[in-house]
Amino acid sequence: MPARLDVAEIGHQIITLPARAMEPLMAGLQRLVGIKRMPWVFLLPNLVAVLLFCLLPVFINIVFSLTGSDRLYPAERPFVGTANYDILLACQNYLDPASCKADLFWRAVQNSMIFVPIQVVGMVTVSTIAALCLNRSLPGRGFFRGVFFFPVMLSPVVVAYTWQWILQRNGALNGILSWAGLPGSNWLADPQSAFFWAIFVTIWAHMGFYTVIILAGLQAIPKDVYEAAKMDSASNWRTFTAITLPLLKPIMLVVFVLCIIRSVQTFDELYVLTGGGPGSATMLIVQYIYEVGFAVQPRNFGLAASASLLLGLVLILFTAVQMLLSRKSNNG
Amino acid sequence: MKQIWRTTGGAVVLAAGATGAFGGEITVYCQDIAVGCAALGPVVESFEAANPGDKVILETVNYQTILESLPIQLESGSGPDAAIITDMSGLTRYYLDLSPYAEDAAALRADYEPLLAWLRGKDPDSAAINGIPLSMTVNGAYVNATLFEQAEVDMPAEGASWEDWAAATRKVADATGVPFPMEFDRSGHRFASLAISYGAQLVDADGRPVVDEGLKAAIEQFVQWHEDGTMPMDLWGAVGGSAHRELFSDFVNAETVFYFGGSWTIGQMDAEVDDLFDWRVVPTPCGPSSCTAMPGGSALAGFNTSDNPELTGRFLTYLAQPEQIAKIDIHAKELPTSQTLIQQGLDYPDASEKTQEALDVFLAQVPKMADTAYRFQGWSYQRAMMNAMTTRISQVLNDELDVEDALMRIKQDVETAIQAAEG
Amino acid sequence: MADIAKLESRPSILHIFKLRRGRNRFDLADWLTYGFLLLGFVIFFLPVVWVVLSSFKTSANLQEFPPTILPYATQTAEVQGFDTPLTLFDVVMEDGTTERVALIRRVGKIAQMIDPEDPSAGRLQIAADALAPVKSLHFAVENYTNLLSGSENQIGRYVYNSLFITIVATVITVIINSMAAFALSKYRFRGSGIALFGILSMLMIPASVILVPIYLIVAEMGLIANPWGVILPTVATPTGVFLLRQYMLTIPDELLEAARMDHASEWRIFWRIILPLSTPALAVVAIFSILSRWNDFLLPLLILNKREAYTLQLALTSFQTQYGIRYDMLLAMTTITALPLALVFIFLQRYITTGIASTGIK
Prior knowledge:
B: alpha/beta, D-Maltodextrin-Binding Protein, domain 2, 2 domains, eight-stranded mixed sheet, 13% strand, C: alpha+beta, MetI-like fold, two-stranded antiparallel ribbon, 54% helix
């Protein structure tokens, strides 16, 4: 017995024991259904959970979007047809939110269309660099991994509060700037700078999440590929672009898809940090949904559900295109 | 008077005993704040002592439970028997009418008008007693008196207008180097005080939103104060949407001369400003129409989903007796709701001199409140209107809308909400 | 792709710059790496340190402008003849010396002070603007004790509930997500594309939006106030399936074929070959599951409506009121609840970079 408690071994046992116990059952099942249907056996538990707690809620949401009143149970809600969608889509000119009935919805859409690309590119770039740095064997590596990951553990309210403390009129940033002899600013009162800080703070809060995923992905690259590159005395940059990046592709797809989805759904931190302001400069779609449907009585579940379904539809189309493209490039 | 308040408790207990269901248990949601579980505790104790066998369980919950979970729990029938609520008109359809449980419902009604109307939602003229108002809050202005003295500016007297106060605080700020003369909580409720004193109706007798010249004048005035630096952009300008925000720290740090908040902050004032400077609550400034502030408050409401409405009703009417409700208000250092107590005045034995003074000023504002303010507070769609006002005013301050458009959008936002809620 | 022999020889730590290790000097890549990490330290870590330090500040200290780095509180002194402690101030006297005196009351510009060392000397009249409060380092441990006492000594129960939900949900999540990911990455079968797309589509709806429908479903199942009412809705995380599937795609199929030759059952292939090879991705999914279950707030708030079912997060959030948040309590709560998470991460992060060889194919 090793003197030191080996948690990895314990973890291994936790998985091994039930897995071994399951073996006769699953082997029997395999004889029963045949190897062809085994993937469905593996999928089943997850599929049941997805159907019950993801698909069914989405279906209930569809019902919400077609019904009115502030009642909760779908059966008690009167049918209103497409009234909710009509409110959202009533626009004279889709490029000018002021001409729309739901002007804030379209402002939020516009803001998201600028916010998401910038935030995603920034997020992926920074977290890739961080993952590459943290993957090197250097002293204090475990500590630095924590450094980038700790913000992920903070609740959105605390993230927002911390940055308010830094960015406010008499905050830490202006303090540092004046110490350095530079002019400060009321960072969150100006639309452009508030927008910049909204992007910065959300990257700060979530970057650790993607860094960890990329870090795991880097483990899947076989070492011998690098050995070969060394033989060819390829440069670092060349090794990175020719070997690391292509082999990271499956994981980078995860990172991009998750990053885009979560970026579009950005809400909590900004709600506390800027409330969508100044004016509506940093208001994104989920804040609109929240304010309409959940913030106060009367709760307009119908309008909120319609907006969320439109949002979901766009995201699904987007992901489908992305996956098709990646499949094409894999085959090609 | 006292007799009126005694409930039919004894007789009902006997009757219940005969059917085999002696005593009972109810759960009450309350928060860990001033008017919360701690304030209810002594009342529950004396109730249980007077009614052996009955049990009232106080469940300490957080604010979000009241705000977000409670409506959903009630709708699915898994809620508590009663709860302390602040959004009085929001949950009307679940309230238990206490009239049948009170010995003298008419007297109870008389003692708590006009606050009972807030609990009636869309039917303010009904006779239902949908809960017991526990405490009243009043919006009001805190002033840094030390700064006034340093600047050698006289503080405007009672009856002074909003413009007078803006001019005076600007002078003080100039003389003392304080960055901002005035600040306002970012809250539709606070803004409604200003709007109504400028003559805004906000809601008509049919419960429809009203945008009028009064509201327009108030918004224009408010915008002008932000443009000329009377108010900082940090609150109403920098924050968007319906988010509630305060910067009371500005007042505590003497960064502003005048802060418009409300009576619930007195405890914090006492604890945090303490001796740092001399602060004071002043009578609400006047607009062209009135010198009103917005009222608010909390109430203990019983729910008709309760398994034990009889005990719920009995406990609530017991608590409505002036000597019981006084225990709660004194503990919480809040203004009383019962007419009996308002007329008697209430002494807060463990409050500091300053707190007592401030509470007296707040109490003196109550008779000056406009009927419009009461009506607005009891309107079922008040929250929708307040959210629309904060959102749209913030947009005007950032040049996204002009005042006319803002008025049109406010009306439209509220009408959409009403249309959706009523199906 | 690589064959099995090469796979087994993968080292535990891989990195792209290792080629340079042979040279014993601090090269450009090293400088850049350390520069980046240092910048990360300043931007990412210092704010977190500030959160922890601020959790020891009094509410008045938190409100102060300009904010202080360390927690301070104004000093008070017991003075004979006064019931409550008086606040201490430093005052510059007319002769230029500084004296420490206690404030009795302030009337406009004039403050009535008293010398705490010698109260019998009588009251002093001092101009109010000459006062500077005396501050000293003070760790407001009461932020923590108030939080814990507010939970009515049932803290053990809340910790137990949180642990139960976190551990059970994470174990189930890891197992069923990896099973699904295995099916979706290592088999070609009719419907696999649709199943993958269906699971992924579920990512697209914002969590706050499906909260109410989930509540309705959980209520129908009779799981209100039951920890399983919080566990079950969260185990099918599409993120986990997607991540694990993409990771498993990189595991060579030849490994599976070899095992099938040896008549291993599919289940055996799954847990003896695929799972050990997916350790880094499993560690990531486990970390995220632990993190989100431990910090979960809105769903438990709706579903766990009885005090005995409360999680730590629910029990410690009574500081939020209608008028805003008590930041002193919030920061203390954040520190209390995040500490175990930080430890879990520091422990589990090693497995993220566990090379394939170390867990090995047995």
